[in-house]
Amino acid sequence: MRGLWGLAGVIGGAAIGLIAADRMGAFDPPVPVAVSPTSFILPPAEIEAAFPLTALAVPPVAIPLEFGPTPRPFAAPEPPPLRAPQPAPLPEAPKPIAAKPAPVSKPAPETERVVAVPKAAPPPSSPAETILISVADRRLRVTLADGSARSFPIAVGRSRDLIPIGTTEIVRKRRNPTWVPTPSMRRKDPTLPAAVPPGPRNPMGLYALDLGWTYYRIHGTNEPQSIGRAASSGCFRMLPKDIEAVFGLVSTGTKVTVIEGRLPKLPDPPTEAPLPETKAL
Prior knowledge:
With 281 residues, the protein is of the alpha/beta class. It contains four helices and twelve strands; from the N terminus they run H-E-E-H-E-E-E-E-E-H-E-E-E-E-H-E. An eight-stranded mixed sheet has the order 5-4-3-12-7-8-9-11, covered by helices on one side. Strands 1-2 form a two-stranded antiparallel sheet. It has a two-stranded parallel sheet with strand order 6-10. The termini are far apart.
């Protein structure tokens, strides 16, 4: 194949030379040349006369004159223009949060103002002047310094020989007392405990007023159903709420009197004299 292509190149060059010589009048008569838009053809006799190649028996050859498009000259690409580096964009500052306007409260309709006037505290009770106990009434009366009196139900001794009659005073006040049985109680009931501490089983309750008579007291009870009866061993029992009130009124040294009869009637409080009538002028 390479030999054929080489021969075609030689023949092409010779053909071009013949054409040029013919144009210049070198051939007489002129060599008939068949020319096509893309090639030219020489008669075999003319080719053989110019080039004695009869031994090759070359047929008419059409030599194309097309060599493809003319290559464009190489042009190096232009370098991109130099640009200064752009600084990184700064982060956007946070948008300020608009404060919500405070709701505007509508003025309340005008109404009549009611002003609460604090009530004056009641005056404290006057301290007790005396305590009077009636065995017959089974009541205890506290007479206060201002002349007023308060009466409370009590329980008294089971028999009269257990109840002292006369006058004495309060020698000690005890809160949450410890109950200790008397010797006479132990003789009657040896199973009694040596002492009972404060609590629900204590027979004296939460308060006790020791009297000047040994082993005698005014105290509370854990048996409220016994109040108003002759049920104790000689002491004077009171309801829990009543002994609490008397405990706050009396002090050591308050006189206590026990009588067999009934409580005397209290004098009626003085009445105010009526105002004189005035006549209209």
